[in-house]
Design goal:
- There is one protein chain.
- Helix content is 37%, strand content 21%.
- A hairpin with a 2-residue loop joins strand 12 and strand 13.
- It contains 22 helices and 24 strands.
- The radius of gyration is 33 Å and the shape is globular.
- The protein is of the alpha+beta class.
Length: 642
């Protein structure tokens, strides 16, 4: 007697449904993805009892033709694929033809739909995957689907569901990601008669505002990174706007919300040096890529994708995030140390050499110094160039930007041929002091690139708090600088920039054995490992030996290095610098001044110049270097202003 039997449809439908709809989130996901595929511009989602009692999805999409309504609940019936080759270029969110059939197999469904060409809507009721009632009703164009009593006919599966409150939380988390990955669709989400999200569908900014609030947007950095074959867009959080877990990270590919461990690791690696321990970045990023470059047909849930060259994709995310963070740090540094007062509004128009002379005389009368080049030939060329252009205020700025720093009025006059006797900068300073009743104050320089050298003189050092924090009075800001964190980052950057590749042979090579996949990883990255200052040689099957290391790494425990190396296996293509960053960070931490150390004037000047010149705001471990209070913030604390 034959033991193998073909399963009946009611049995295999129940089995298959468990893969697609294993919890209420699965049902919600499939239903609203169908709405997006139907070109809906507005979707309303209602759930009761964590989605177990009721899920209602209403959209204004194209609707379902009357003749297709019953077929829509048949397994592997879909309007999104026609032939096998279509699987190579999938552009819809759904395509397998499993969603409605799977949901109908484990619930009671009522569907109402109408297309533009229909005089009335069609309403059908479905139980156990079978249409049990069909009639006509008044309805708007679009589709309304109600899913009741989820898993009523599979009590074993229902018993493994979480509590209604927990299921509601999971659905809410998913809806939040769906809103920001479909920012041009208006989505209203209600749970147990209370509105949780109400997105207007007016773009990504509006979607982020609806889900995370205005505070999130004000702490976001825009991303727009393009190559010939892909584009990465969205927002990442600033280094200060971090989270305690990864729940605030959303990645989508062509608008489809997905998860990808390599890309996640690449983004996290780009934040290294900005994040404190046990903190995670915020991001909402979308990858636009040709459909034939990505395989989304990996799993029925369609949340896992596979790329043609996953390491390259992850690397692009790394560079996109890293570039944005560097640019943001540079801008914030310039804002902190930028001059906000004292800039001249009455800049003269430069036409001739005589105009420059008169401008200098005027500045001298005002008790200011101007920055100029000592080379008269360059000055004349700059003046001639300025004369050829339209006379406007920018000509004066263009001319001044070419002047050297720390030169006084007297030196400027000499550079223009007005003084015959050469004098040093210090002699010129003394001369001006003697000619004036009071010493000449420095000119407030508005061009941000000129701030580094004289930052110490314009940022008045009020003192040091707790022998750790420098207190600066700068323009309309009060700035606190962590002396240890600042010096640690300064040394870290200098060590990293000047890493010596001089190799030193180990007296006793370090031998280690790895698994097959780890050996493949080492072989693929052997050149990068050597560039980082580690010479690895094969020493048998899946066995290697470290025979020489860069001078900087001589005192590093080789076991720790190998453990760190192999921990990078799941990330994108290994970066040679990454391998020694941790070692350099520890070296910088040990060499930097400590909290409690007393600094002299020269130490303070050095730190202030370096943190501005290098545009750094975090130590190598992600802690902030500066804390800034504006004058208005302080006045609000003292209730001077409200």
């Amino acid at each position: 007697m034959a033991k193998i039997k073909a399963l009946t449809s009611d049995v295999y439908n129940l089995i298959s449904a468990g893969e697609v709809v294993d919890n209420p989130i699965g049902a919600v996901k499939e239903l609203i993805e169908n709405s997006v595929d139907a070109a809906a511009r507005r979707i309303t989602i209602d759930i009761e009892g964590g989605g177990i009692d009721l899920i209602t999805v209403i959209d204004d999409g194209c609707g379902i033709e009357e003749g297709d309504v019953e077929l829509a609940f048949a397994r592997y019936a879909t309007s999104k694929l026609a032939r096998a080759s279509d699987l190579l270029c999938i552009q819809s969110l759904g395509f397998r033809g499993e969603a409605l059939a799977s949901i109908a197999a484990v619930s009671r469904i009522k569907l109402t739909t109408r297309t533009k060409g229909m005089d009335a809507g069609v309403c059908v009721s479905v139980e156990n995957g079978v249409v049990v009632d069909k009639h006509y009703v008044a309805a708007n164009v679009g589709t309304k689907i109600e899913v009741r009593d989820l898993y009523y006919n599979t009590p074993a599966r229902k018993s493994f569901l979480k509590s209604p409150a927990a299921e509601k939380t999971e659905i809410t988390k998913f809806i939040s990601k769906f809103i920001v990955t479909n920012p041009n669709v208006a989505i209203t989400y209600r749970a147990d008669d209370g509105i949780i999200y109400d997105s207007t569908g007016e773009g990504l900014d509006a979607a982020i505002y609806a889900v995370f609030g205005s505070d999130c947007l004000s702490n976001c950095i825009p991303i727009n990174y393009c190559t010939e074959t892909m584009r990465i867009t969205g927002y990442i959080g600033t280094p200060e706007y971090t989270k305690a877990n990864r729940n605030y990270q959303t990645l989508s590919v062509n608008g489809r919300c997905v998860t990808d461990d390599r890309i996640s690791a690449a983004i996290y690696q780009a934040y290294k040096g900005y994040l404190m321990a046990h903190r995670f970045p915020f991001y909402v990023l979308n990858l636009e890529i040709p459909p034939d470059e990505v395989d989304i047909n990996i799993h029925p849930k369609k949340s896992i994708v596979r790329f043609k060259g996953s390491r390259n994709i992850a690397g692009k995310f790394y560079h996109a995030v890293q570039d944005a963070l560097l640019e943001n740090t540079s801008k914030r540094s310039a804002q902190i140390f930028s001059s906000t007062s004292g800039a001249r509004d009455d800049k003269p128009i430069i036409r001739t050499k005589q105009d420059v002379v008169e401008a200098i005389d005027q500045l001298k009368e005002d008790g200011e110094i101007i920055l100029m080049t000592p080379d008269q030939k360059e000055d004349n060329l700059a003046i001639e160039k300025a004369t050829e252009r339209e006379e406007n205020r920018r000509d004066f700025d263009t001319f001044i930007k070419q002047f050297q720093r720390e030169v006084t009025v007297a030196n400027a006059r000499r550079a223009l041929g007005l003084d015959e006797t050469p004098r040093t900068v210090e002699q010129a300073r003394l001369s001006i002091v003697q000619e004036s009743e009071t010493p000449t104050p420095p000119i407030p320089v508005s061009h941000e690139d000129d701030l580094g050298d004289d930052l110490y003189y314009r940022a008045r050092v009020l003192g040091v708090a707790f022998k750790t924090y420098l207190i600066l009075d700068f323009e309309d800001k009060l700035i606190l600088v962590d002396q240890h964190a600042a010096h640690e980052r300064i040394l870290f950057d200098k060590f990293l920039a000047g890493v010596s590749m001089d190799m030193q042979q180990l007296l006793v090579p370090y031998v280690f054995t790895v698994r097959e996949e780890e050996a493949l990883f080492i072989e693929q990255n052997k050149q990068n490992i050597y560039s980082a200052g580690i010479q690895i040689e094969e020493f048998g099957h899946n066995t290697y030996q470290i025979t020489a290391v860069a001078t900087l790494l001589v005192n590093t425990r080789m076991k720790d290095f190998v453990d760190f190396l192999l921990s990078s296996m799941d990330e994108f293509k290994l970066d040679d610098r990454k391998l020694i960053v941790e070692t350099i960070a520890k070296k910088a931490c040990k060499a930097a001044v400590k909290a409690g150390d007393t600094l002299n004037k020269y130490d303070i000047t050095y730190i202030l110049k370096e943190i501005y010149a290098n545009k750094i705001l975090q130590c190598p471990h992600g802690r902030p270097i500066t804390v800034v209070f504006t004058k208005s913030q302080i006045e609000k604390m003292f209730k001077r202003i409200v």
